[in-house]
Task: inverse folding
């Protein structure tokens, strides 16, 4: 797999729209919003593409993934480009190819992070605004206050935080920022823009360990979703099916599961 020329980059961006799944992370790479990686089977007019977001999410897609299957698998298994665990999705047109066997995938149940490849499932949701508006507003736990994200929130440390999705605080805030639950100067949870394309905005959610089981994740997410609805922006949600908390929270906020795809964790 090799780097693409400028014309191929433009064609690759257009081809994302035809996939019918949430591709915000791949679009961020192609748009140059983050310093990701994009390669193909050839520099010009590629038939197969592979985009890797710096957070670790990746996508293989194209018109001839079946014809180049062995080469794609060799590229993924070698992983010379991979500095951290990679979370791989495949173009739905080709998810019946023997990925499990070729990648040596083991089921998520009972697997550990030392496994070279583990198979999970990724859920895409459709937002139902009427369902969201009919729900009882999420209450904020006693002692906590909701506020808009500010520049200093970019530096929050965690597994799903703005610094993993944007270059700097200015870019993060310009893309939509987010909402925080704060008490005594400490942030307990944040809902924020992880990807933004036109009038669609995908949410990232993090509740920090010391503040869990207080409903803070739901409170900040509901506040942000409500603001997006008022602004005419469509909220987008994706998560691993195995992430029960995220999967359930999405549905509590009016998101409806629409598509479930194989999701492979390739070890660093």
Result:
């Amino acid at each position: 797999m090799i780097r693409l020329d400028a014309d191929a980059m433009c064609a690759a961006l257009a081809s994302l729209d035809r996939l019918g799944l949430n591709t915000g992370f791949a679009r961020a790479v192609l748009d140059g919003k983050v310093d990701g990686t994009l390669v193909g089977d050839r520099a010009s007019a590629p038939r197969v593409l592979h985009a890797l977001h710096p957070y670790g999410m990746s996508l293989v897609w194209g018109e001839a993934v079946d014809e180049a299957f062995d080469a794609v698998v060799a590229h993924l298994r070698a992983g010379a480009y991979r500095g951290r665990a990679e979370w791989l999705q495949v173009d739905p047109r080709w998810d019946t190819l023997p990925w499990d066997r070729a990648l040596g995938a083991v089921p998520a149940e009972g697997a550990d992070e030392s496994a070279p490849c583990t198979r999970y499932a990724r859920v895409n949701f459709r937002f139902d605004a009427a369902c969201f508006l009919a729900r009882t507003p999420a209450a904020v736990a006693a002692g906590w206050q909701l506020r808009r994200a500010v520049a200093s929130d970019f530096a929050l440390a965690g597994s799903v935080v703005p610094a993993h999705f944007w270059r700097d605080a200015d870019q993060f805030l310009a893309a939509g920022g987010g909402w925080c639950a704060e008490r005594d100067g400490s942030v307990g949870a944040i809902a924020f823009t992880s990807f933004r394309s036109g009038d669609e905005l995908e949410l990232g959610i993090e509740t920090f360990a010391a503040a869990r089981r207080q409903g803070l994740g739901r409170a900040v997410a509901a506040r942000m979703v409500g603001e997006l609805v008022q602004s005419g922006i469509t909220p987008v949600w994706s998560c691993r099916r195995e992430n029960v908390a995220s999967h359930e929270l999405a549905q509590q906020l009016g998101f409806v599961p629409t598509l479930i795809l194989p999701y492979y964790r390739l070890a660093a």
The mean pLDDT is 95.
